Amino acid sequence: MIKNILLLLVLLSAFLISKADTIPTILFGTNTEYGGQIIKLYKYANYITKTKELLACDTVSTVGEFELSYIQNETLLITLPLGIYESVLFTEPGKKYHVVLPPDQPKTKGDVLNPFFQPVQVYLGINNADSLELNFMIAEFNELYHNYIDSNYHHIFQNPKSSSVDNVIQKISARYTDNKNQFFKDYREYKYAWLKYVSYMRDYRYVIREYYHNKPFLYQNPAYMDLFSQLFTNYLSFYATTKEGRRIYSDIAFAKSPTYVKQTFANNMVLINDTLQELVLLKGLHDAFYSKDFPTANLLMTLDSVVMSSKIQVHKSIAQSVREKVLQARSGYEAPQFELRDMNGVFRHSKEFLANYVYLNFISIESFTCQQDLELLKGLYEKHKSDFMMVSICIDDDFSKTVELFKEKGYDWMLLSYRTQKSVVEDYNVRSYPSYYLLNPEGLLSLSPALSPGENFELQFFRLIQAQKRKQRY
Fold it and tell me: Residue 190 class from Cβ within 10 Å (0-12 exposed, 13-18 middle, 19+ buried)?
């Protein structure tokens, strides 16, 4: 009888947990300033690539009402881009949040054209929050934590004393002794660990052993992943210089084997956990694509091996995300596709350009540099229209002005508007305007980025053609 009751309780508990996973998290509110706008909510797919994944979107009603609903099975940090702001909020599964949006302040054209523009990060206000609400507690904790760092910067980083740092940690912790929220507890623990590590606890092996060996893997806790990133930035390049890791280069450059890499990791006694080894490898592969200490093709093969061999779904997803990020708009790989309207309102797909070289450029007629380059592009187009196509993608919201300018100035090449697929800017990693790319007849990026017409793209193009002809001969 007791066994049957226990079994019933277990089944009931499992049912309630599974049901909780299907209860949507909801953000709702009212702000007439955003009437008619589409707002989109994202989460970080992972904290290695920092790739954002769309969770929900809604069109704000004419009276300013909106509701964003999505399913989550763990606490997440969500982001809501709104003009010059990036609003953030920690959301817990199945909860409703009556949120307050910041004032509607769209990006200016200067913001859009500025390659160094960074949105202002703000917490979303919550109307139905109390003092124990997770965001309230994290905001309060962060204020105490960062005020201490700001006030004691010299002593923390130049002349650290463990007793001083530990006393402050104990003092802050005393405020939350009765708090039972596990996410908040973990968040504080790894924030403290980061502070200890950068001040007096500078032995990275000790920190790994204390905070990552036989500990839960908190992939969606930013404090956990921030410390992880600090410990393992460019780790493959670093580890290859150590006695224990001297085989790392050959494990990747020749064997292209995650198994061999893990065996070499295991020479370091704090990296004997298989799951931790694999996560460190993923972070290491991501960073290695930018350090250029390893052959790119071999890094890709090692990454693909992780996708195929890993038994951990989160790691498979991270590996695929790393692959997509590092190959995005990379020379030698497939050019991102697009379908955009031309001057006559006709949709033109990038597949139409196959069998031709395409000199692709992103422009704004409000940029003085773009205006100068358009005149140079005109001369280049008239001279080489039989050698390559020229396609300009306009990022101005008033496309009609650009169309008028093209007609007035006699710019005869293809002009497209980005408005129906604004993601094309991110797909090509465009950071400034104008930006240039060269697509080959197979739809691959031959030059990413390419030189501008004023930087002698003409010479760069013909050198590329000559090099390809030599390859074909031999």
Answer: buried
What is the per-residue pLDDT for 115?
A: 86
Q: Which residues contact 29 (CB under 8 A, 6 or more apart)?
A: 65, 66, 98, 99, 100, 101, 127
pLDDT of 111 reads 92
pLDDT for position 14 = 56
Task: Decide if 269 contacts 204 (C-beta within 8 A).
Answer: no
State in words which class domain 21-129 has: mainly beta
Which residues have C-beta within 8 Å of that of residue 375, sequence separation ≥ 6? 409
CATH number of 339-473: 3.40.30.10
Residues of the chain with pLDDT under 50: none
pLDDT in tens, 193-214: 999 998 888 899 999 999 999 9
Closest CA to 447 of 439, 459, 435: 439
60: left (phi over 0), alpha (psi -120 to 50) or beta: beta
Domains 21-129 and 339-473 share a fold: no
Average pLDDT value over all residues in the chain? 93
pLDDT at 474: 64
- The full set of domain ranges for the chain reads 21-129, 136-327, 339-473
pLDDT at 433: 95
Would you say the pTM of this structure is higher than 0.85? yes
